Amino acid sequence: MSEEVDLTKQSGGCGANSPAVTLMKTWLEKGGNRNIKVVATPGVQVDQVEMWVAAMSEQGVKLIEKKIEDGKVVFTISLP
C-alpha cells in the first residue's frame, strides 16, 4: 500500500506551502523505494505536481498513473 499525500488540504500558493516543496519533503522524510499517491485539485496543483515529476525524473522519479476521482486528480508516483 502506498502513502497518500493530499495536497487539496493545503492553502496552496508558492514557497513553503507549494506542492513541489511538500513532495520533496515527503520524499526526504519518508525515504525512497516506494510509491506515493498524490491527490491534487485540477489547475495549478496538478501543473505543479507534473512539473515536479518532470524536474525530478533525472533523479529517478516516475509518474506511474494519473486519474480523476471525485473531481480531483490522483497521481501514483514512484520515488527511487
TrEMBL record:
<protein>
    <recommendedName>
        <fullName>SirA family protein</fullName>
    </recommendedName>
</protein>
